Amino acid sequence: MPLLTPEVTGIVVVSLLMVALCLGAHIGVALGLAGFAGIYLSVGPDAALAQIAAIPFGTTNSFSLAVIPLFILMGSFATVSGITTDLFRTAYVWLGSLRGGLAMATVMSSAAFGAASGSTIVNAAVFTRMAMPEMARFGYDIRLSAGCIAAAGTLAALIPPSILMVIYAVITEQSIGKLLIAGIVPGILTALIYCGGIYVLARVRPDLAPLANLKFSWADRFQSLKGVYGIVLLFGIVVGGIYGGYFPATYAGAVGAFGAFVIALARRTLSPGSLVNVLKDAAVTTSVIFIIVIGGILFARFLTYSGLVTTISTYLIGLGVGKYTYLLCFILLFTVLGCFIEPIAIMVMTLPIMFPVMKEAGFDPIWLGVVAVKLAEIGVLTPPVGLNVFVVKSSSPIPVTLGQAFAGVTPFIVLDFMSLGLYVAFPDMITWLPNFVSG
């Protein structure tokens, strides 16, 4: 017999979760404890103990989730191979002489590196150390520089391989391959919108992005394109393999990681010491993600077993409001939670309740996945807990305050919501490519 009703249990569990987060508990641990307590109170101690015994093994033993550590390993090998430096150099040569060109180069090279790294934090950290000194050298405003790098890092969540897309696919039981391919067009569109916004801002406020005195010949530009072969090769292997039907999306991580390893060997940038560091960093990052996923799944099981998912979903669907009212609520929910909680945790907390509601309202699951990822990534830019902003602040070789970084990222948040408006107005821009690939 349950000790408490689902409604009372929900209040107790959410309160416990908020207290744990306020006390500084890791989000994965807080979700896991809240979920365990919820199952204990609503179903019983035996069910709670059974879940806490089964979920960690079941999660780490999941074939679908096995692609996550492989994507992380692929990004680590790509970083140590020097691909990032080559990408920035190429974008620097092509765009650096434009007004705001160094910031545009950062956006485009970060977007390209997103094809090898599914982590926004890795992107932000790598390009902070690389691009911040260059922009400071040419007199760029520190706020624009920090905001540009933090925002450009989020492109890794849309452009495949994307860890968040995999998480969404597993939670909602959608095709990983279709979701990865669905992120290509929105990712490129967002990068172009960022560049357009930077150009307009630089024209209106020339003091923010002085015109760099850089002169490159066309020969230099075409010569620099040799530096992008690595990322083109990786992207072709991973996305082309999925697109061409040569292997499923769950194998793409292994193929991509091996490809990045071979590139690092060919460039002679991988020593025994750096190999150990790459494997260690990938293991640590994977462990952090899986702790959040395990805690989130435990919390989601509480929502399901207690009946709260059914109760809340039935109530929301019964309201009978228009589909775009549901979408507005979905956007507001993700935006508010994004101010305080890590993106993966937002996914595992909200999707068990909101996905059935949004699907019943008539939204395409693949389209909704791209929108959810976009909203979750806006959360890594918004105060007070904007992870990418904190990464830029802590990684920057140029002194920058959190106030300056959050001020600099504000225009890019506005641009992100503009992109989101285009997704809503023209949903086919997201769904046509995965639908075309699937025949």
CA gyration radius, whole angstroms: 22 Å
Strand percentage, roughly?
A: under 5%
| Average pLDDT taken over every residue | 87
Q: What's the story with the biggest beta sheet?
A: none
For the secondary structure, the number of strands is 0
Task: Give a written overview of the molecule.
With 439 residues, the protein is mostly helical. It has one domain. 76% of the residues lie in helices and 0% in strands. The chain contains 22 helices and no strands. The longest helix has 34 residues, at 272-305. The chain is globular.
Question: Features of this protein?
Answer:
439 residues, 22 helices
How do the helices and strands line up, and which of them pair or pack?
Blueprint: H1 6-22, H2 27-42, H3 45-60, H4 67-80, H5 83-95, H6 101-113, H7 120-137, H8 142-153, H9 163-172, H10 176-182, H11 184-204, H12 218-224, H13 229-243, H14 249-266, H15 272-305, H16 308-318, H17 323-338, H18 343-360, H19 365-378, H20 387-395, H21 402-425, H22 428-437
